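[Solved] Which block belongs to which protein?

Original post:
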Amino acid sequence: MRDAITDVRGIRVGQWTHRRWATGCTVVSCPDGAVGGVDVRGAAPGTRETDLLRPGNLVEEVHAVVLSGGSAFGLDAAGGVVRHLEQQGIGLSFAERTIPIVPAAILYDLGLGSGTRRPGAAEGERAARRATAGRVAQGSVGAGTGATVASLLGRDRALKGGLGTASERLESGA
């Protein structure tokens, strides 16, 4: 037990990090499917397929979730994850097709690195291929590479953020 998200059976995490660009992406993969939920907040949220996670929709499970730097451009990383999962035969079976369900969200990190280099489909696919149930790197890695907090008052007053993971086993065994 590491108290990490990968302690949950069927969950894998893969990351792509580029330190010089100060950006990256993280893929939480659940090839057997998992029930997802979302609470979108912020003054300028950037998401993909998060509406699917609302109760009452036809789709009841996801096959991966992508967190990416690169602001709106980083949403392209999810396309690479979808492609990778499709090649593996992972996804929702519908009308004789396999459709991977991959919600994504981004964070703004364009002010730290080059700003012109950000995660795209190739980087998302690399992160998906690296997904493992093993130990999860935390901090300035993957989507957390260029993450900052408290930047509303200006970049010079921002604090370094990062990526974390957690899990907890309940008395019921869940």
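(Second protein starts here: sequence line, then its structure tokens.)
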Amino acid sequence: MAGIGMNSGTRAALALAFSLVAAAPAAAGQDAAAVAAAAYGELSISPPTPSFMTVCHGFGCQYRAELGLTPADHATLKKLMAGGSGSAAKERQAVAAAGAWFDKRIAQVAGTAGHVARANREYMYDKRQFDCIDTSRNTTSLLLLLQELGLLHYHTVDAPQARGHIFDLKAPHATAVLLEKETGVKWSVDAWTRAYGQAPEIMTLDRWMESD
């Protein structure tokens, strides 16, 4: 949600959204249960399973759609992630490809085909769009699914993280996070900056924290 010109109503909505992210501690190497509690607890939604997940859309998870996952979905993800064998960098590239596919897949149930990149207050509560709370939760769900299916070898899933403050010039923004096993480096997997069907932007979390 970075770069939003905020009036008082928008600022209040972002304050609520930011509180959902700020509640997640920045602990290293969290297990799946801890990540799920941090990502979904305040939203009162269930964590994903190999057969089901809740899709957030419309800003702040205002709208929710149910996505049933099939063996065909699992096969597609397995094929996409096969390109990530050999190194952590290749695995992140495969995650990006899976993210592009996932964006199209969830659009089938959420009605978000054609959503814009960096949706700002102009689109607030438009059920066809995502804010960063939506994308950070949805992307975390994808990452947890990949982990559950045994498709992540060089990374584990960490809790969503946030930057900015509602009283700063830099607006609050949230992202999904991967933790590289060998180095301990955290990587931001940010789908909010991308339009429909595009791969999420992946960079080190440290770099993401300094970005606009």
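Accepted answer:
You had them paired correctly. Confirming on the second one: The longest strand covers residues 155-163.
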